[in-house]
Amino acid sequence: MRNAVVAVALMVWASMATALEIEEEAILPGQPGGETLAILSTTDTAYFRPVLEAFQRANPELTIRYVVAGSQDVYAAVTERKMAFDVAISSAMDLQMKLANDGLALPHEPGAALPLPDWAQWQDRVFSIAQEPVVLVLSRPALDGLRLPQTRRDLVDLLRDHPDRFQGRVGTYDPRQSGAGYLFATQEARQSDSFWRLAEVMGAVDPLLYSSSVDMLDDLESGRLTIAHNVLGSYAADRVGDDSDLVAVEYQDFTLTLLRTALIPDNAPNPEAAGVFIDFLLSAEGRRLIGAEAGLPPVNEAALMQNPHLRPIRLDPGLLVYLDKMKRRAFLEEWSAAMFQP
Amino acid sequence: MTLARPRRARSLRQRLLVQLLAIAALLSAVLYMTVRTVAGQAAEATQDGVLGSATVIIAEQLRGGPDGLRIDLPYEAFSVLGSISEDRVFYRIVAGGQTLTGYDDLPLPDDITPGVRPEFYTVGYRESEVRVAAMIRQMVASDGVMAVTVLVAQTRLGQEAIAARIANRAAALGVGFFALALLLSLVAAGSVLSPIERLAEAVARRGPHDLRAVDHPAPRELLPLIGALNGFIARLRAALVRTETFITEAAHHIRTPLATVRTHAEIALRQSEDPEVRNSLRGVIRAVEESSRSASQLLDHAVVVYRSDRLTVEPLDLAVLVTGVLRSVAPVASLKDVSIQMAPVAAPPTIMGDRPLLENAVRNLIDNAIKYSPEESEIDVSLTVERGEAVLRVMDRGRGLSGQTAAKLTQRFSRGSNVDDVVGSGLGLTIVDEVAKAHDGRLSLEDREGGGACATLSLPLL
């Protein structure tokens, strides 16, 4: 009998575990008997661990469970109730926005935290913790003396003029698989028609499609890719520099700037601890840690003013539009038509 | 005589303030309600306008055709919904009873007519109240014409926040309006009542003998009251004048026959040898003398009362005036062997005064002194300047005040308790006192060292 109960429990656990595709899971044990703060995030543990450790030093009784999943899975975990988390952190702003709009995020009044600019917060439910440019990353040796493209038009010209050199060596997000990739593609398409020209030119050189920036950067380093379009700037920053073969370019026509956002799902088992954690992320100390230790640029309105090519994706209901199923189907059809040319 | 205290009704100021404040409170409340209602309606109209435009823009993106109905949701239509407030947004597009896209549980309107304008309704959805804009368009699709309903809904948190903010402002406005009204009411009440207060003060300030008509400037509403008051004063003055005239006439009519009686009695006294008859005749002569003197003092008093209301003042040298009076009473004094000595006047004091009244007063003062002086005594008169006043002292060696107060002795028809053997009417000092008061001066009486009385008349210098 007892074995049967254990077996059923294991089956339930197994079914839940398979339902949510977990990429990484880290547990920072707190004092025995303390509560657990469960965080579901799209940000790799390596980036976020220093922030988590600092938070745990301030709240030693909390055990922190940090689970990394793709942005679609983060969204599905909340909407389909696959697993209950206290905080959901995601780079897919549109999905976060939809969670809040559909009433699946709890309100939280930030305590002593520094106020966010209004484009970086929606109601008292979605809070931005980092603003990250989406950049173009190139492998300098493979470019072999060609001029670095500064705009999308430059990139179109480059690919059109040297199709043989870049054949099968251009990578970008697959918007069908990645929530962040879909957000970048749709926002790019909304901002400029050059997106479609770029898609067609890329499609002509048989691009490789990815669902994470880290994979693209790995392939750039290994030499499999020469150009990666739409890579999260914070991940790219680790790999570029004077002693690296890689170089990152912020498009001068416009560079999308993504807001990494946090919210408290409405099925959070421990919303109080979640609120304390969000206040910590928004505090001066939290922002410093996110910037210096995690390498994610904190929300900074002044930086946007000084760099007019940075165009933040605003947290507003417009983000819901591309999540519309008809709109999504139509967009992906058009994208596929451009990308997969017969 | 005791004056009956007037019965007190509620003060005009209080009445005015209470009514003004009641009106202000009412107006403040109306202002609050109006601002709230109008602003609330304006906020709703604004939000409805934005919601309606979004609905129209979305409906215009509907495309029919052989492949079925399609819609390309415009990004800006949604984005603009977030521009006013951070409200949650829902939408639903229904074609021929089937949800094409959007939130398929968003409630449909009960009854809506196809048109180019959206219709609005409020409904509960996902634990909040949402405002829905609904619009029906007829579209041609693969299987003929079908009605497509476009719903766009938005929560009303922003509008509620605006309404709450406006309600607070309206309340502050109402309170501020009331406070201002309170202040203005105080000022207005003061300004309205000030003519009444000034008039009341002017009437209260009048002396007891001031029987002039009230000609203080007064608002039209008070003119009947002032008219009535002036009527009373005129009648009172006329009554007083009639009384004094009557006294004057009476004194005059009495004095003439008395003089005749006295003459006849003196002739009879001279002709009579019988000591008893002579004694009686002397009694008659004394009584006649007393009556005659009373009559003339009554006359003097009437003149003083009449003139003190309307003094005819001129600069007077008091020394000259006193010397003149002393000269005129000299025969009476010599009759009694009383000598009057006037101390030399160092600086002749000049005063503003009514000559006949002052002569009358000085004569009465000295008459009085002569009357009460024993035979062969002296009366000392001095005229000095002390502390800005001309001071006339008349000192006799008579029987003094014998414990009576000066105030009692200056009352009309009041005489000292020790004077039954002296002819007198009791009006002499009253006349002096009234003249002194009419000239803003005063009369004081005190016992003189070594016997007798000292009467002091002080008058302000020019």
Please characterize this protein's 3D structure.
The complex is a heterodimer of chains A (342) and B (462). With 342 residues, chain A is of the alpha/beta class. Chain A has 2 domains: 2-131 and 259-312, Periplasmic binding protein-like II (D-Maltodextrin-Binding Protein, domain 2), CATH 3.40.190.10; 132-257 and 323-339, 3-Layer(aba) Sandwich (D-Maltodextrin-Binding Protein, domain 2), CATH 3.40.190.10. Helix content of chain A is 44%, strand content 20%. In chain A, strands 1, 2, 3, 4, 5, 6, 7, 8, 9, 10, 11, 12 and 13 form a 13-stranded mixed beta sheet that branches. In chain A, strand 6 and strand 7 form a beta hairpin. In chain A, helix 9 (194-204) packs across helix 15 and helix 12 (271-282) packs across helix 13 (284-292). The relative contact order of chain A is 0.18. Chain B has 462 residues and is α+β, with helices and mostly antiparallel strands. Chain B has 3 domains: 17-164; 206-310; 311-462, Heat Shock Protein 90 (2-Layer Sandwich), CATH 3.30.565.10. Chain B has helices spanning 12-60, 75-84, 157-205, 223-271, 275-309, 318-335, 355-372, 406-409, 428-438; strands at residues 62-63, 70-71, 89-95, 98-102, 119-125, 128-141, 144-155, 314-317, 339-342, 350-353, 378-386, 389-395, 442-447, 453-460. Chain B has a 5-stranded antiparallel beta sheet, with helices on one face. In chain B, a hairpin with a 2-residue loop joins strand 11 and strand 12. In chain B, 26% of the residues are buried. The A-B interface holds A 100-103, 122-123, 190, 314, 316-318, 320-322, 324-327, 330 and B 70-79, 81-83, 86, 88-90, 100-102, 126-128, 157.
Q: Which spans of chain A of ≥5 residues are poorly predicted at pLDDT below 50?
A: 4-18
Give me the secondary-structure category of chain A. Answer: alpha/beta
- Low-pLDDT segments of chain B: none
CATH classification, class level of the largest domain in chain A: Alpha Beta
**What general outline of chain B do the C-alpha atoms trace?**
rod-shaped
